[in-house]
Amino acid sequence: MAGLLTPAAAADALADALRAGLDPEACPPRTALAVPGGELLLMPAATGAYAGVKIAGVAPDNPGRGLPRITGSYLLLDGPTLTPLALLDGAALTALRTPAVSALALRYLAPAGRPLRLVLFGSGPQAYGHLEAVLAERTLAEVVVVARRAEGARKLAEYARTLGVEARTGAAEEVAGADLVVCCTTAREPLFDGRLVAPGATVVAVGSHEPEARETDTALVRRAAVYVESRAAALREAGDLLVPEAEGAIGPGHISGTLADLVAGRMPAGGAAGCPQLFKSVGMAWEDLAVAVAMYLATGANSAT
Question: What is the DSSP letter of 29?
Answer without folding.
Answer: P
